[in-house]
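Annotators were shown the component list below and the corresponding predicted structure, then asked to write short factual statements about the assembly.
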Amino acid sequence: MNISEKTINNYTIISLKGILNASSAPKLKTYIAGMPDEQSLVIDLENVEFLDSSGLGALVGIARKKRTSRAVMKLARMNERVKKVFEITQAYTLFDIYDDVSAAAEV
Amino acid sequence: MKTLLVIKKQEYEWLIDLLPGVHPLLVPICNKPFIEFLVDFAILAGSDALRIVSDGVLGSVEHYCENGSRWGVEISYGSMRPADDIYTVIEKNRRFCLEERVIIISGFLFIRYNKKSEYASLFTSLPSGELLSCPHGSISLTGTSTTKTETPGTLPFSLAALDSIGKYYELSMEILRTGLTHYVIPGYSSEEDCYIGRNVIIQKSAEIIKPVIIGNNVQIMTNSIIDSNSVIGNNVIIDRESFISGSIVIGNTYIGEHLEVKNKIAAGNLLIDPESGTSIVMEDPHLLTAMTQSRVAGALLRRVVHALGATFLILLLLLPWLLLRPILGLQGKWKRKREQYFTRLPGKNVTLTNTTIECTGVLSALAKALSLDRFTLLFKVLSGKLALIGNQPLPVNPAIPLLPNTHAVYRPAVFSYAEAEEWPEIGIDTEIVEHYYAVHSDPLKDIAMTQKALFYRTH
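Structure shown to annotators:
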């Protein structure tokens, strides 16, 4: 999985590309752990080809960590494959999900 | 033009308990799913794209509507959080709402319209802002008008909130009596006020009185009477000498012999009085029965695989349990507590002995690592009361004697999927992983997950 980063307003935009599963989730967690806890994030999921329960667990873990640090984590541009997993697990109730990265980084 | 439908779960939740098994957005109104009326209205208003946003599950709605190609409109789906207001929802769907005029329909509302009216030009000329509202929702418009025509004094559509079974019934009757020509109603109609679907068998002696709507694959047996103001859904059997009047028979329902259903809603084995909202569950399978597909075969295979897995674990752990249990018991490190837990079957509970091992010392650590605290529960797998792996058993709460509705797929088990995935074993997080595996698991995967659960409990 490739991780790229840019900044819009005060948000760090993390773009993920590839598969987010048990083997790649630790990479994402380590990457996020390297940032200040109070840094708000938008995770762009447009190019995530596959997401499993471990990947979802990583996203839940990051969101929980950000919440305790009074920062924000939002998700943006979910593709149909990712949306399916969120639908099945009803995980969408935990996240703010945007269809546009710049809208997510504004509010 | 685009249309954004924003419907919160709390607005339609009341329907889930009354008509279980049908998503509230797919509940039929005069045999046409509710969502289709909104799709039709959006198309009449000139929309070429429609987005349905909700904080509830939209899986079955998505399965039914797909991408909208059937109606020649692009349908997409979005999610929101329960606390989101309409402005937040618009922000979350900014890419969809950008550049074009968007009709925003917010709330669990029925829109009364007339398919013969001209809405497309009206919506392009109306100024942005709220067009109509009622206590349960509104219709508003964003973007600037492209044409300039005179705005009519009263709009050629109105809103009806759907907030009780009484309103649902009234609305169905209103359409049946006066509005059948205003909407596209499914079925064949050679005369006004009578719509009949495909593959309908009506015995010679049966009597049908207009206005009436009959769905597909319906059998109306000898000497039955379908009186006026009745809606018979798809796949319904009305057995001989029964009388249906002013009633709605939801799809997949069997109405037994010699029954009189008057001003009621029959759905599976439920008979609902729309006036009071009370419902009766018919226990007798020969009266009103739900015709649902059996899932016995898959469940049986899973049960066999789980029983084999449990037998293997019992044989493996029997000797360590016989050796360590008395020692830890004497040391006071083996603590037991009996509690009542929900089973899969509604209204039935199971008493389980919860064992906790105080983790001080080598022997107790060994017992814990071997999962000996779950040893006695394995016998419940053999008796079919628990699964080997599945949901964490939910303790019975005297305040809530029935299993909460949120646990649609509930399989209490010795080991949980959350343990196997090393997820936190509390709250919504556990539900997420359990929902995931409720859909993605199979008996063989369950064995692999049990191994994972055992491994993670060890470490």
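Statements collected:
1. Chain A has one domain: 2-104.
2. The interface with chain B takes residues 53-54, 56-57, 60, 83, 85-100, 102-103, 106-107 of chain A (CB under 8 Å).
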